[in-house]
Fold this protein.
Amino acid sequence: MKFSFSFDGILPSAVEVFTGQKYSAEDNALAEAVLKQIKKEEHHHNIYTIDRGLQSTRTMKEFEEKCMKFIIRSKENRKFEEIESFLETENILKWNDWKVIKDSKVKLYTGKPIQNKRGNIHHREEKVETCFRLLVIKNEKTNKEFWFLTNEFELSAREISDYYRKRWDIEVFFRFMKQELNLIHLISLNKNGIEVMVYMTMIASMLLLIYKKANSLGYKTAKRRITMELRDMITAILIVFAGGDPAKVFKT
């Protein structure tokens, strides 16, 4: 079982639960989750930032055909053919500790499945004619390189880097869901039960995130305060149903 969330920077925007064997591969699960979200939101101007779980060139081509803008962190040293470089040799692009190593229009390779006479499947390397943009930046302190693939050619190298950095918000959200809302403990083993638990947790998380945003609080403080306020509200409702006056109780 696998479930995947999307996050728009403020609230979770979608969740998909997968149980099929083929979804053990991130390329399959993430691709389907994103494509379902695109189908729901026609004529949007979103830029989807995706981690290294999705590397399929065929999926990226499908994203491009559906006019979906994306920024994906690529595995380093993947094979490509450079069509055009956007770097100016006399002006090295740098900001803070980051330096642009490569910024190019490229064509990528993929493995095309071929069935032989015995019925066995093998993959033949094939170049995809769709053009993408490959951006490689390097941290001069750590010497670590980050490779990004995108179909967005209008943004600057720094803007692409900044957009991807926003993806950290969903990692913080995952930790919040697991640590504060106990999503890490599943109370059901069937798909329907898991979906009910996930969606109920999503509703609770959205209420908490709205409360957090409205009151400029941290995750833990927001959870503690909304719990106290909900407890007082439920207590007041019970007192009213019992014929009492909640104002006198809370005043005391």
About this structure: The helical segments are 26-40, 57-65, 157-165, 168-179, 191-215, 219-241, 246-251. The beta strands are 2-7, 12-18, 47-50, 69-74, 80-85, 94-95, 98-115, 121-139, 145-150.
